[in-house]
Write a structure and sequence with these properties.
161 residues, alpha/beta, 7 helices
């Protein structure tokens, strides 16, 4: 199974993903680590990524997902997956479960202000909210909850207790 935690910057994808993967003894991958140096540089300067920037990044993530499937490895993956077309690209089969960590702009902005050493700032958050096409077919969880509660809810909904 692949659990793909999605949502804008600051929604808790990495924090929740690391705890969830640790509890399940699964692999964890952060979509941020698949960005090209050019994408990271662009975001570090507060410039939003275009679809042309994102497609090679998403294809790299998709390849990693396929490798996990072929090797029968379970994966927790943090990836913004903002648009429906991105999620369709990443839905490699029915083993991919999307979990949308939904948070208000204000909550995520506050989290980003307290984050150190990450390229995503308020300009990136604004562009991500502009691009966000909220999923109707994902498990939606309130990102304002404590991380442990989010992890417990994901495990319960997916029957991974």
């Amino acid at each position: 199974m692949i659990i793909l935690l999605m949502g804008p910057a600051g929604s808790g994808k990495t924090t929740v993903g690391e705890v969830l993967a640790s509890q399940l003894k699964w692999e964890f991958a952060d979509g941020d680590n698949f960005h090209s140096p050019a994408n990271i540089e662009k975001m570090a300067h507060g410039l939003p990524l275009s679809d042309d920037d994102r497609i090679p990044w998403l294809n790299s993530i998709r390849e990693a997902m396929f490798r996990c499937e072929v090797e029968s490895r379970n994966l927790v993956l943090a990836c913004s997956a903002l648009k429906r077309s991105y999620r369709e690209l990443l839905q490699i089969n029915s083993n991919v479960k999307f979990v949308y960590l939904k948070g208000s702009y204000e909550l995520l902005r506050e989290r980003l202000h307290s984050r150190k050493g990450h390229y995503a700032g308020e300009q990136i958050l604004a562009s991500q909210f502009a691009d966000l096409e909220e999923p109707t077919d994902a498990i939606t969880i309130d990102a304002a909850q404590p991380g442990e509660q989010i992890v417990a809810e994901i495990r319960k909904v997916l029957g991974l207790s």
